[in-house]
Design brief:
This protein is of the alpha/beta class. It has one domain (10-346): NAD(P)-binding Rossmann-like Domain (Rossmann fold, 3-Layer(aba) Sandwich). Helix content is 41%, strand content 14%. The strands form 2 sheets. A 7-stranded parallel β-sheet has the order 3-2-1-4-5-6-9, with helices on both faces. A 3-stranded mixed β-sheet has the order 7-8-10. Strand 5, helix 5 (165-182) and strand 6 (188-194) form a beta-alpha-beta unit. Helix 6 packs across helix 12 and helix 8 (266-277) crosses helix 12 (335-348). This is NAD-dependent epimerase/dehydratase. Keywords: Oxidoreductase. InterPro entries: Epimerase_deHydtase (IPR001509), NAD(P)-bd_dom_sf (IPR036291), NAD(P)_dehydrat-like (IPR050425). It holds the Pfam family Epimerase.
């Protein structure tokens, strides 16, 4: 069991991120000194929200410049830290070469941070932000899962450089983390595997993320004709941050944790908005036939390949989140609370 000294600083990589913002707030509220790494601490547009949080909480925030793909870039920020929360992850929507643009940066970034943990003698625990994408690639994989449920014992074996490359990159990055962890005995590794993260953002610039794009489409008329019958897990960003926090400070925390509040379909997200916003906004109310999506999907969205549609649309997502409830004490928010808070933020920021 790893006992953490709360008077020592903790590191949060990628501190301006969607999940990281809520984690930084939680740590500061608890009185921690937080070392947050960002690409450019002098870019006030990117870090202003973190400075505002720090002013209203008892903890102390120190920002450090660090690039995920530069070896030894985290040495200064990690100095004296007992916990490293590695939330930073390279992300690009402009993928021309899957290996070069997505896979290698994901693995290299993880390696750089964890090898720095090996060199920093104070580090006792690393909490890694992975993904349910490291557990499964397509919903059809559920057919092969024991008892028809995704659990922490399962690894994604169906994604590749050709199909579901983002999921493949997350799988390889988490496997690299476990490889480095098992080769040493100084620090233990606790992994958080969230599903689709929704909920309000503390950073106005995070409202450009994929989950905000999905929810925005429900209000701007883009999908008013209907949605695919696509199953997925969904979880509130504040619950994901709490899971990271608990994974860092609880002595008994260990291994992987599926952090997913609900097994859902797009129709469930839309239904959560109907009562409050259905009269003012074109919230979708019907599902489109799979055959239609298979036919026109590739022309509407590059990610809706026919292989993706075949292996995902019409299939549920079913995951067991009991370990996160039992061992991390997570109590999940309702889909309605998460969706309303997100949708209202988009309205307030005039994005809908």
């Amino acid at each position: 069991m790893t006992t953490i000294d709360k008077t020592k600083p903790v590191l949060v990589t990628g501190a301006t991120g969607y999940v990281a913002g809520w984690l930084v707030k939680r740590l500061l509220a608890e009185g921690f000194t937080v070392h947050g790494t960002v690409r450019n601490p002098d870019d006030t547009n990117k870090v202003a929200h973190l400075q505002r949080i720090a002013e209203s909480e008892p903890g102390t925030l120190r920002l450090f410049k660090a690039d995920l793909l530069t070896p030894s870039a985290y040495a200064e920020a990690m100095q004296g830290c007992e916990i490293v929360f590695h939330t930073a992850s390279p992300f690009t929507s402009n993928v021309k070469d899957a290996k070069k643009d997505l896979i290698e940066p994901a693995v290299l970034g993880t390696r750089n941070v964890l090898e720095e943990a090996n060199r920093t003698t104070t580090v006792k625990r690393v909490v890694l932000t992975s993904s349910c994408a490291a557990i499964y690639g397509d919903n059809i994989d559920l057919k092969k899962a024991p008892n028809g449920v995704f659990t922490e014992d399962i690894w994604n074996t169906t994604s590749s450089e050709r199909h579901q490359v983002y999921s493949y990159s997350k799988t390889l990055a988490e496997k690299e983390a476990w490889r480095i962890n098992e080769a040493q005995s100084q620090w233990d590794l606790v992994v958080i595997n969230p599903s689709l993260v929704i909920g309000p953002s503390l950073n106005p610039q995070s409202t450009t993320s994929e989950s905000f794009h999905i929810i925005k489409q429900m209000g701007d008329g883009s999908v008013k004709t209907g949605m695919p019958e696509l199953g997925f897990g969904v979880v509130d960003v504040r619950d994901v941050a709490e899971a990271h926090f608990k994974a860092g400070i609880l002595p008994q925390a260990k291994g992987r944790h599926i952090v997913s509040g609900h097994n859902a379909f797009f129709r469930d997200l839309a239904a959560a908005l109907h009562q409050r916003y259905g009269k003012q906004y074109p919230i979708p109310r019907r599902e489109l036939p799979k055959a239609l999506i298979w036919l026109v999907g590739p022309f509407i969205n590059a990610s809706l390949t026919r292989e993706f549609v075949s292996k995902n649309v019409g299939y549920p997502f079913v995951a067991d989140n009991s370990k996160s409830i039992r061992e991390l004490g997570i109590s999940y928010r309702s889909i309605e609370e998460s969706m309303v808070d997100t949708f209202q933020q988009l309205i307030d920021e005039k994005l809908i």
